[in-house]
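Bump. Still looking for Glycoside hydrolase family 92 protein structure tokens.
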Amino acid sequence: MGFASGASSGVASGVARAEDLVDLVHPLIGTGGGAIGYGRTMPVVTPPFGMTGWVAQTRQSGHPGLSYYDRDRSISGFVGTHQAALWMGDYGDVVIMPESGAARSGLAERALPFSHRDEEARPDYYRVVMGTGGQAIRAEMTAAAHSALFRFVFPAGAARRVMVEASRPGVAGGVSVDEAKGEIAGYNPRRSDADLGPLTLPRFRGYFVVQFSQPAKMATYPATPAPDRSTGAFATFDAGTDAVEVRVGTSFISVEQARENLRREIPGWDFETLRRTLHDAWREKLDRIAVEGLSGEQRHIFYTALYHALLYPRSLSEYGRYYSAFDDQVHAGESYTDFATWDVFRAEFSLLTLVAPERIGGMVQALLQDYQQGGWMPKWPNPSYTNIMIGTHADSLVAEAIGKGFAGFDRALAWEAVRKDATVPPDGDATNDWRDRKPGTPYEARGGLSYALRLGYVPADRTAESASSTLDDAYDDWCVAQVARAVGRQADYEQFLRRSEDYRKLFNPATRFMQARNLDGSWADPDTGWTEGGKWVYTFDVLHDVGGLSGLMGGRAALAGRLDRYFDGNYNWHSNEPSHHVPYLYDFVGQPWKTQERVREIMRTEYADRVSGLDGDDDCGQMSAWYVFSALGFYPVNPASGTYMIGSPLVSRARVRMADGRVFTVVADHNTADNRYIRSATLDGAALSAPMVTYRDMMDGRTLHFVMGAKPSRWGASWVAPGVR
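Sorry for the wait, here they are.
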């Protein structure tokens, strides 16, 4: 089932053009549950990496809970959101709602019914008709990085007003009106995840300025402040005013900065020009990858996935300044937030090194600034420390950026930050079990590190999620080793390389599974100590040393057999990230045709052009990045290594345009749904025997050429991965 809405961009003059990739994006993919799953996405209107996203509010967000869900049938406003995922809360949001008739500020009483038949969702534009019959209101919106422009058309004969909700009940927000300027301004101090980290941030506020194209009478509400009422204001327009445009600027610095952001981005009331600017920003990014040979449905999935991947991390910069949620101060420079590092280190960040390389230096520097201002690089800033998920996978992002030669950040500071992650236990480590989302705790960093430094593993009877943490820490130690080598610290490189082998301490030779251990060295319950997975998934969680894992299993034939049991027994859990690399492990054990089979099957069954088209949380673009890479024919099993293991390309041809103009090309002759196996491969005309390609190959603009067939072949089977026997 495809989408009718968003299939054409003809509503804006000058936007629709031949082969316009923005037209292929269906932002409603992943917004609802169904046969495949619930991707937990929202159809946000914002530029790539925009600070504030704008979305129809069909329900009030929470954690868990997003502002938009496909099965809802009413809209209670349009929210300027900063929420990155279902399990993360929103912060500093503002809501705009057009109304006719009596003034209504309550969430349920102001909601208007709508139908998806009257909705169009695109990256650059959203349109919906709310209400019924002669009382329907038409709403349109487009946006810039910190601002949005709305166009509301009201029914005839009724009162016309726009409600601005500064903060929801129970939150001490602020709002003021200035009729002479035609402006409502205010702030929202709510951070719904504030209890998940150690910082109180008394100065944190999401500021906003709302301006109107028509004169209005304005009043704040409620008349008497009450904890069970939201805080906001109404702008009421003359009876003859059928249409009103509303522009909103947002900021984390001040009302004045919100006004300045609005002045820079939306100086007038030209809706079509603003939409065209946003459209062109998306087209420039989507044009980085051109594909051929995909079906119509596959093209929609591919470019929607690329749209999702380009939303995060979210920029915090406001024209040369940014608010830091790590020291509660405003600084000069550039910053980003909403790094879901446990998720995105696997493929999302690696994809950004290809399609948004101009951002990578600033993203890494943002993590290092967080380290300077808060004491640690964050796991998942939202916008501050949240203690959600495990490991210190910012180490992987730093190592990947350094390994790929990116600049724009301080390498000495990077070494200092990753070394602290690997050597300094968090405060209270010996007395805190670091349960997920445990409120009021210090920053978690590597929970259980004080034990791991002595034992080589995190004990299950002292620290939650201990087995997953031990395995993740081993990979992060490998990444720390790469940073050490890059800055000339050879002894440290060797030390952390040795430590990266500590995953071996969890391998139980009797069962050939990874298993948590207790403080005294005894084996814990096999089902204990895991994070969003279990023993089947995490036994393969050795991204940096597949050769070592093969040795533990008894050789590559034994590892291949265990992979067969994993897939044939339906243990693969693609809806969660720890499984994402596993189908590519057949490449390491001389059976690449099985990688080709498994990857094609996952692309076919776990993704679709429908609201239930993502089987699991997209988690800031990771689920989507997996599809983009796999459709191109390769995937970064060890992302910080700069190598990509080859799967089975879905495309017949793809061109990945690099920042310097060079083009990395993938060609797959005779590629069809049945011809999923690679018969032969060349790289710039030379025979390619190893089922892998490198970042350097891409940067050099080389051509990867496959010949596909209907039956498994021995291509790539003779390659022996380092350490595999």
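The radius of gyration is 26 Å.

Edit: fixed formatting.
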